Amino acid sequence: MTTQRPINDGSSEFFGNPFSTRYTQPGRIAPMDGFGRLLNLHGILASLAELGGTAAIQGPHGSGKTTLLEHLACALQHRGVCVVRVRLRGMSDALKALLAIAQSPPGGMVCIDSWEQMGRLLSSLARGLAWVRGCHVLVTSHRVTGLPLLIDCQTSHPLLVAIVRQLPSHEIWHGQRIAAADVEEAFEQCGGNMRESLYHLYDRFERHGREVPDMPVMPAVSIVPLRSMKFMKPFGIFFAPRYPSAT
Question: Residue 115 phi/psi, 5° resolution?
Answer without folding.
Answer: -55, -30
